[in-house]
Write a structure and sequence with these properties.
Helices cover 40% and strands 22% of the residues. The chain is built from 8 helices and 11 strands.
């Protein structure tokens, strides 16, 4: 089914193509069916905010299609993008479980479909499904580990060029071929917010990698010409 935003709408959690890979998708049919009964689905335009940092937790959002950026801001207006969420990911999980305010703002980078589960119904669902509760605990643990690694990377990387190289390598994961080709949909400003740098610094880092013949840039496409050297740069 097509939505007003040109999306391929996922009608059922049971037939979802991401079911085997994501949190809550890989549960028993009975659990997935019950989860579906307490969710409401909607299609959103690019730029829509699912929730805002500091807002009281209303519940979780399951991203069914499209991408979203998770960001946090300082009082001086400086913004740091913490993550780019992919289809199948659950957003607002930590705040919904703990009852604390949402830690981040979630903005859609493209038209997307998301399902919403109210906090009270979600917590009741976890009480009756131990497998789902275990997966939540595992997801929160993984999120903590990922956050630790990102902070470590931002703090210990020697240069912005190395941070950019690490970002490009992460995006190339799953791309086959000796010289992976990736499509970059973020602006230099947004990439700067991901690696804790300025837009000008990211532009210079791209130029540096091109000068070293480690990457080629053709419009929104980036070709990693020497993945081994990029990995060496990140690991040094």
């Amino acid at each position: 089914m097509r939505s007003p935003y040109g999306l391929d709408i996922i009608e059922s959690c049971i037939t979802c193509p991401f079911r085997e890979d994501r949190l809550f998708c890989n549960l028993s049919n009975a659990a997935v069916k019950e989860l579906q009964e307490i969710t409401s689905a909607a299609a959103y335009p690019k730029g829509a905010l699912l929730f805002v940092e500091g807002q009281a937790p209303r519940g979780i959002f399951i991203l069914c299609g499209g991408k979203a950026k998770l960001s946090t801001s300082a009082s001086d207006g400086k913004t740091l993008i913490l993550k780019i969420a992919e289809p199948g990911e659950v957003l607002g999980l930590s705040a919904t479980v703990s009852g604390r305010e949402y830690e981040v703002t979630v903005e859609l980078l493209e038209p997307a479909q998301a399902k919403f589960v109210p906090r009270d119904k979600f917590l009741n669902f976890l009480k009756h499904h131990a497998d789902a509760a275990f997966q939540v605990a595992n997801q929160l643990s993984n999120s903590y580990h990922t956050a630790y690694e990102e902070i470590r990377s931002l703090g210990l990387s020697r240069s912005a060029t190395a941070k950019l190289a690490k970002l490009l390598l992460e995006w190339s994961a799953g791309h086959d071929g000796k010289e992976p080709r990736i499509t970059v949909t973020l602006t230099h400003e947004e990439m700067a917010q991901l690696i804790g740098a300025s837009r000008e610094t990211v532009t210079r880092a791209f130029a540096d990698l091109k000068k070293r013949k480690l990457i080629d840039v053709k419009g929104s496409a980036v070709v990693l010409r020497d993945k081994n050297k990029l990995e060496q740069m990140v690991g040094s």
